[in-house]
Amino acid sequence: MSAGSQANEGWAALRRMLWSENPVFVQILGICSALAVTNLVRNTLVMCGGLVFTTTLSGLTVSVLRAYTPRRVRMMVQILTIAAYVILVKVVLDAYVPEVSDALGAYVGLIITNCIVMGRAEAFAAANRPVASLLDGLGAGLGYSIVLLAIACVREPLGLGTFFDVPIPALADATRWNVMVIAPGGFFGLAVFMWAARSLNDWRTRRRAAGEE
Amino acid sequence: MNPADLHPLVILFAAITTDNILLARFLGMCPFLGVSGQLRSSLGLGAAVIFVMTCTSVLNWLVYHYLLHPDGVFGIDLTYLRYIAFIIVIAAFVQIVEMVVERVSMLLYLTLGIFLPLITVNCAILGASLFMVTREYTLVQTAAFGLGSGVGWAVAIAAMAGIREKLARHGKVIPQLEGAGIALVIAGIMALAFVGFSGVIRIN
Amino acid sequence: MSDVPGRLGRGLAKCRDLAAGQGSAAAVKAYPIVFTVVVTAVFVGLVSAVNVGLQARKARNRELARQRVLLQLLDLVEPGENLTDRAMARRYEERVERVEATAPDGGAYAYFRRTGEGPALYALPLSGRGFWGPIRGYLAVNARTGEITGLDFTRHEETPGLGGRISEREWQRQLEGIPYDRPFPDGRRLRVVQDADDAREIDAITGATGTSVAVEQILNDALARFVRVRDQEASP
Are the Cβ atoms of B199 and C217 closer than 8 angstroms? Predict the structure, then answer.
């Protein structure tokens, strides 16, 4: 099949990953990091950047190797690929942009074991072609980023009174809502996001059904 | 605090309660939220995690101190490879266990074996090994820590499953929060409760 | 020789067959292990090569960062002054002296002293275990006034937004002016508490009890060590 239809498959996969099969609030993957980093917008961006990079490249690599990988060791090979990419990123950042590397350092372990990266490698890249797998990985990373950024945009202002480390004037005198900054706040934030997302989906389904009548 | 001063039993107890790897350190969440609908399967998953976490912590201690450390067999500092090395050990161990279980007992394979691939990517398993390194535990302390963390994880997941089962039987949940949504709220409340524990017993 | 692409293609096709289970029983059994070993070797080799290649650069960055922290703590940089790496290294060499001593427990101990004119500032090394991982940094004290003048961390793995706030200037500034030679009855020279009352107390970080407790221990250890070495040197 031509590269063109591979790309079509890929774009379809990417769009699915952004919302209808979103890895975080639909497939319930990647939760550990969703809780850990969303108390600061800055760290969320660094984590999301690292994750998008990893899911995209590991999707591509796993797909390229899929014909040569025996069934029994495919998970090990997937993890190896992921770990290698993450460490590579960390080493390069360490040498050229140490401040960013220090910010990302705590999350290296979280990216390697992030269920989304492994999940996409196993569910899609292991059985699909390289270009499509790359786009699927990219979509999964972006879908993850959308959810995390939405949560961080609520947690940081409410919990610390800042946005991207810049104090918000309107909230200067408000009491800091501390539970937003510790992990239980992440749990509740994600639960509220799911509630909102599902309500939105239900509303759209009802409208579509009403429109068809 | 000198790490050698900590008695392994103290580490074991604290890892189950105040330093619970799931509720205090927030590692190993994915199966916690996805699989913990029934008490039965949660106990199965918990048992598997206890076994894997204890064994891999010890194995990784050996790998770290005898292979990666400058004082080890190779004589050079290979500690930057610890992520890859630990992951390989965990994945290989889980794979071997899966093969052994499949051959030895079909019943065990059908009840526990299906969880094993899930465990390979459980961030709690890798996390336990990484903590062992930064806290500079001895071999015995590592065994206690691995066992305690596994039991703590299993206890948390069993508690979550129990609460959800009861909720399903006696309560009503709005459709938008069914499943993972309410699990997150329950997890948040449990985590809040565990914030109160922090610092009661120090193991690092 | 000229058939390399052809041979490569046939080799790859053979690998694909083995992966799918076709071939001699022995080869099919051995293939997963061989494949995993080869893939591991390739990835480890790649990561190691990059790591070794960038090692020198990384070490240089760490050393420069360390020098920057020490220069700032020892008040050797004007506010707003932007030094090039070379200028910074030169100033460090000229104005910062590393003093080696023997700690009372027999181990080696080194701290840093500001040389030349100006206040008698010392930078004490901070080292210990935080909530998530090791914490390293320096604590600056004025030996003549007996007060802490500053604090900065060179590495830690605390939770960003919570324990990680120990790296924030605002939190670190609390330590300025604290007298370190007036210990509490329990031996601590400063305390990290919920609501700082005494001049020797600073506010903990809400939601980061583990980190706050760890940092209190690390700071007290560093001060106790310095005071013991100083007293030892004073009375030969």
Answer: no
**CA dist., res. A110 & res. B126, Å (int):** 9
pLDDT digits (tens, 9 = 90+) for B81-120: 888 899 889 988 988 888 888 888 888 777 776 677 778 7
Structurally, chain A folds into a number of domains equal to: 1
CA distance C28 to C57: 45
Contact C160 A72 (CB under 8 A): no
Domain that holds residue A8: 3-212
In chain B, where the domains are located:
3-195
Beta carbons within 10 angstroms of residue C138's beta carbon:
23
CB of A181 within 8 Å of a chain B CB? The answer is no
Query: What digits encode the pLDDT tens for the residues A129-181?
Result: 899 999 999 999 999 999 999 999 999 888 888 888 788 888 877 787 878 87
User: Are the Cβ atoms of A84 and C157 closer than 8 angstroms?
Assistant: no
A30 to chain B: nearest residue by CA? B30
**Tokens read off for A191:** 């639960």
- The residues near B127 (Cβ < 8 Å, ≥ 6 apart) are A109, A113, B21, B25, B27, B28
CA–CA distance from A88 to each of A53, A108, B80, C44 (Å)?
11, 11, 11, 10
What is the least distance, in Å, from the CA of A77 to any CA of chain C? 7
The pair of three-digit structure tokens given for residue C144, joined into one six-digit string: 């003549």
C97 DSSP β-pair partners = C113
- Only one residue has tokens 């919570």, namely C162
* Spatial CA neighbour of A147 closest among A57, A56, A58, A27: A27
Length of chain A measured in residues:
213
